[in-house]
Design brief:
With about 525 residues, this protein is of the alpha/beta class. The chain has four domains: about 45 residues, no CATH class; about 220 residues, FAD/NAD(P)-binding domain (3-Layer(bba) Sandwich); about 100 residues, FAD/NAD(P)-binding domain (3-Layer(bba) Sandwich); about 110 residues, FAD/NAD-linked reductase, C-terminal dimerisation domain (Enolase-like, domain 1, 2-Layer Sandwich). The strands form six sheets. Strands 6, 7, 8, 9, 10, 11 and 21 form a seven-stranded mixed β-sheet that branches. Strands 1-2-3-4-5 form a five-stranded antiparallel β-sheet, with no helix packed on it. Bound molecules: flavin-adenine dinucleotide (FAD) and NADP nicotinamide-adenine-dinucleotide phosphate.
Length: about 525
Amino acid sequence: MAALWWCPARRSGLIALTCRRGLAGILRTEAGVGTWCVHGIDTAIHYDYDLLVIGGGSGGLACAKEAAKFGKRVAVYDYVEPSPQGTKWGIGGTCVNVGCIPKKLMHQAALLGGALKDAPHFGWHISNSFHHDWSKMTQSFQNYVKSLNWGHRIQLHEKNVKYFNLKASLVDEHTVRGVTDTGKETIMTANNIVLATGGRPKYPTHIPGALEYGITSDDLFWLKQSPGKTLVVGASYVSLECAGFLTGIGLETTTMVRSIPLRGFDEKMANLVTDYMEAHGTRFLKKCVPLRVTKLENGKLQVTWENMDSGKEEMDTFDTVMWAIGRAPETKGLNLEKVGVIVDPENGKIIVDNAETTSVSNIFAIGDIAEGRPELTPTAIAAGKLLARRLFSNSTELMDYDSVPTTVFTPLEYGCVGLSTAKAQEIHGDDDIEVFHAYYKPLEFAVSQRDSSQCYIKMICLRGLHQKIVGLHFIGPNAGEVIQGFALGIKCGATYPQLMSTVGIHPTCAEEVTKLHITQRSGLDPTVTGC
Ligand code: FAD
Ligand code: NAP
């Protein structure tokens, strides 16, 4: 073997070999590797892989595993940059390690506390006062999360997907550089590249002390000791869910809201969610913005904020300050600019078309880093699977991001699918929509005399088009379980008369949806009475 020509800087060149029919060789260019022989250059470029996926979270793993089903050569890069406070975790991405899974388990821990309070009404003797043990809880949850990390590695191995625990970036449109913790580099080429690097929590770096003393959701789930008295800044999914379960396990918890809670959701529902939290122990600092965090000699954190109503500065001390002010896409280290992958300069998200294709035709982006996509695990998974099918099995099916159901796991859960009232009014006009609603009492709240003032359902229908349902909103126990089934009906174009002919399951909260008959327009009392 002899190099006829070789450029080490570009790792390109022509290498001569012999073949059965004479002279042959390997042609390596920045675009990939090809073979040639005296009978003519083999024009097909041979890449190391059919698909390289950068990011082993919800979207990336789903895409890689689906591609491998079609017998393709697939590899996944997953690397977790430690949080500013030094927290690190394994493969599986945000959902598994610092998102949906530990969050839902902590929500469940809080719900169990509520059940313990109800239990005496159901005949249980709870002899001693009960208290919550943070370390015990996190130990159990972390063991479970680690089992999921292990499960992902096993699955990749079984499906013949190569896993690289390397931080990846693009070299060109077919080449990926992977770097280890110690700086060792490897280069791989592929026909197609999928970017699925997700996002990380934002820090308000302009606020003195924010980065130095604050944590984010990336740290909360892995804290060895209880966070104690906590301030959670922000008023969306992450903030309200975390503040909700911290309150539920007995910690003094404050939420700082600078404008409205749950922006983008139905306003009335969002207010009911926070009303319930407020009535059940979470303190809300409304219309307040943080100014600085300082550490006192006793180790406590003193937070100063501006009350925008009074214009005055106020302060309090906390054991923990958690920023839940949104997430930034992990696109900065990917070398996108050099390769020509266009990002939205406002938020750093990658611009994609409806087939998840970026501005470079063989590079795709799915999940939280893609512009305009819901930041939810099931949408990232579905987008990844469908993309793999389009790339490798002649499918043309696109991901439908319309009518994606979601649930906010606050102490009283809020699930919804479709339009909010405001959005429906904007699209269809107030005269062309009918809003049905009801306040109801879950049976499980009745005996223990739990407050059900915020248990509320709202359904938005068109007045024409057979009264098609365009939005359903439910606040109450197990909202996610309730909304999931109705989401199918709404996706299939369900109408109000069809829902009214659906027989309810008694006694459930979900059956209340099938009984909605009071319209907001009528002004009648929407409180459900009787069975
Ligand atoms: P991720 O799952 O974030 O995966 C990206 C992976 O890429 C990560 O492992 C990352 O470390 C890795 N990576 C980044 N850069 C590189 C690189 N250069 N090289 C190699 N690897 C890299 N969604 C729900 O549907 N339901 C919920 O209940 C829910 N709860 C949530 C609770 C919290 C607290 C948070 C923060 C999020 C929650 N989400 C929930 C959102 C959900 O977690 C995300 O939408 C989902 O994880 C996005 O998947 P993804 O594949 O886009 O990215
Ligand atoms: P988010 O939806 O972007 O909300 C950010 C919140 O922080 C808003 O309330 C915002 O207030 C506030 N904020 C922003 N900057 C601030 C500042 N400097 N000071 C004070 N407040 C500030 O972010 P998120 O809650 O982190 O959620 C991110 C995504 O994760 C969500 O879109 C969701 O898709 C996903 N997620 C899903 C679930 C679930 O499915 N159950 C759970 C958690 C997360 P303004 O409204 O005033 O801007």
